[in-house]
Amino acid sequence: MWQELHELPEELLDLEAGMLAAHLEKPTLVHLPGRQPEPLFVSLLLHGNEYVGWDAVRDLLADYHARGRELPRALSLFIGNVRAAAEGRRTLDGQPDFNRVWPGTETPRAPEARMMAEIVERMHELGVFASVDLHNNTGLNPHYACVNVLRQAHLHLATLFSRTVVYFVRPVGVQSMAFSELCPAVTLECGKVGDEGGLRHARDFIDACLHLTGFPSHPVPREDIDLFHTVATVKVPPNCRFSFHGEPAAMQFVPDLERLNFSELPPGTAFALVDDGCRLDVVDEQGRPVFDEFFRIEEGRLLLTQAAMPAMLTSNEAVVRQDCLCYLMERHPYPPPSDERNE
């Protein structure tokens, strides 16, 4: 179901992400040597329509090759859903989300889950140094890093990318959560597809990671981090028709909804006009329904019940159906409280 290579065919660096499937055909783990033997693990194209990882990596490797330079650290690349990339889609019909099937997934018997478990085990054998999972998003969001534990090495890695750091434990089955058991691990959100700033940011971050020899033992300074905690996931029920631009629907979201991302919204903020019987599915970190804790419907308007900060709000209907409408966050105390999971 996947293959392992010990060199990257040079012709691949000339290819757009959508052309990789014709050459690789399946998910591929590629190991490249470097002066420091413990590899940096980088996953890309877990979502086939999020090209920033491949574009950043091929740009960086082409530069090293052109200059005849050796990588300062070994680099292991997992090139994920090349078939979906060929069609410019997040996933293909019948496929699971490639970033929901890593160890800890709710679907451990899926063939893709077995593949990801094998990838993790292989990287464990190689003594992985750190892990980076690269993504684009569809809404208006800043570049930010996500962690799944609050250990300082993970936070140092995250703040190397951005002072904005999001801590989450749901959804499960994500790459960074699986690798957090082995090494410092982050998920990076690098803006929209085609954003040159996001590509350069991702490329420079990978290069910086390749030059790291370790992580500081001291805490990240308080003034260098804005730490947030995802407290709820918001989805639109499958049987609820919705719109973003005023078209008739059971749930008509307010204009410019995406501009609410990473804004600390007060209670009473309106999200949509809704018909009777149509409400969002909202679950907390434990998977419990918590709609009434965060929203209320008043005179046909969907309103926030308490202050919250949304992230990844998108008006891309396909993404809303395949993934979610958004996540709701709150500021997290820093330094984080002592927690055995995070020591």
Structure description:
This protein has 343 residues and is α/β, with parallel strands linked by helices. It has 2 domains: 3-224, Zn peptidases (Aminopeptidase, 3-Layer(aba) Sandwich), CATH 3.40.630.10; 230-330, no CATH class. It has helices at 21-24, 52-67, 82-86, 111-125, 152-159, 175-179, 196-211, 291-294, 317-322; strands spanning 3-5, 28-32, 36-44, 73-79, 130-135, 144-147, 164-167, 185-189, 226-235, 242-243, 251-253, 270-274, 281-284, 295-298, 301-304, 309-311, 326-331. Strand 14 and strand 15 (301-304) form a beta hairpin. Helix 2 (52-67) packs across helix 7 (196-211). The longest helix is centred in the first third of the chain and has 16 residues, at 52-67. The radius of gyration is 20 Å and the shape is globular. The two termini are 36 Å apart.
Tell me the radius of gyration.
Answer: 20 Å
CATH architecture of the largest domain: 3-Layer(aba) Sandwich
> Given the structure, what is the number of helices?
9
Helix coverage percent of residues? 10-25%
Main β-sheet, in a few words? 12 strands, mixed
The CATH class of the largest domain turns out to be Alpha Beta
Number of strands: 17
Number of domains: 2
Sum up the overall morphology in one term: globular
- Structural class of the helices, strands and pairings? alpha/beta
**End-to-end separation:** 36 Å
Q: Spans with pLDDT under 50 lasting ≥5 residues?
A: none
- What is the typical, i.e. mean, pLDDT? 95
Q: CATH H level of the largest domain: which superfamily?
A: Zn peptidases
CATH topology of the largest domain: Aminopeptidase
Helix and strand run = EHEEHEHHEEHEHEHEEEEEHEEEHE
Q: Strand percentage, roughly?
A: 15-25%
